[in-house]
Amino acid sequence: xxxxxxxxxxxxxxxxxxxxxxxxxxxxxxxxxxxxxxxxxxxxxxxxxxxxxxxxxxxxxxxxxxxxxxxxxxxxxxxxxxxxxxxxxxxxxxxxxxxxxxxxxxxxxxxx
Amino acid sequence: xxxxxxxxxxxxxxxxxxxxxxxxxxxxxxxxxxxxxxxxxxxxxxxxxxxxxxxxxxxxxxxxxxxxxxxxxxxxxxxxxxxxxxxxxxxxxxxxxxxxxxxxxxxxxxxxxxxxxxxxxx
Lengths: 112, 122
Description:
The structure holds two protein chains of two kinds. By secondary structure, chain A is an all-beta fold. Chain A has strands at 4-7, 10-13, 19-25, 38-43, 50-54, 58-59, 67-72, 75-80, 89-95, 102-103, 107-111.
């Protein structure tokens, strides 16, 4: 199975400041169809996960533009340009190029 | 409203069985693959099983293969997970998750239910 490694484990951010989360995969997520199958989810406290970003950088419906994704191959980054109180929770990256789909261990984002 | 609601969780002894259900509404259920994803207490996410909209091409995580069976009833817009030979390590919140691609596996999930807790303990 593909291993997804996220850093850092946790992040304390001042509201209005940027935040960045790294995700590395044990194999390239670039498919022969030209797409890269890397996704980001946010699980807010007490809630189920919600899709934020698909195929590295595409924002899902309703996701604010302060969230952006980048990267290629095996190295990916989720950036929040200006963190808000509503952004707290655990962020997970996930690969979908190979079955089984696998998730990173999660990065907990908290507000200072 | 697009939503999914899981049910059927509870406390079960090791070696026991449980059947989870996930009732969907607000989208064309039969057109989308569905998966079960679980989360052990205080832990991360683990994909468990998937099934195509037609009910074919099922897939399982190695950790549950041979013990769990995924199925669906498109007439009832309901997804199921039959769990047999349960172990303590199966203790988790089980989420049903809608695939993001139409008519085939995209292997990503754009809609999640609220989850149902399964506790395996004597």
